[in-house]
Amino acid sequence: MLFYVFKLKTHNRAYDGDMGKVTVTLYMEEEDKEALQLLADAEERSLSQMAVLIVKRAIKKAQDEGKIPPAQGKGK
What we know:
Radius of gyration: 14 Å
Number of helices: 2
Strand content: 15-25%
Number of domains: 1
Mean pLDDT: 83
Number of strands: 2
Helix content: 40-55%
Strand order of the largest sheet: 1-2
């Protein structure tokens, strides 16, 4: 079984009242990374942007289903 270390690298900047961005490291199988890259390419996004979009969708769904509390603060 092969795993790929996938680093979501972003810059730690805060602007317009938003929280700064952070770096997150994911470990996933190579075939999943390749599929994610294909999806990102199809939507003309970077691998990092695609991963962030998928995570945001999962968070929103969990909030809507009451599994986690709604986000607090501006723009959430």
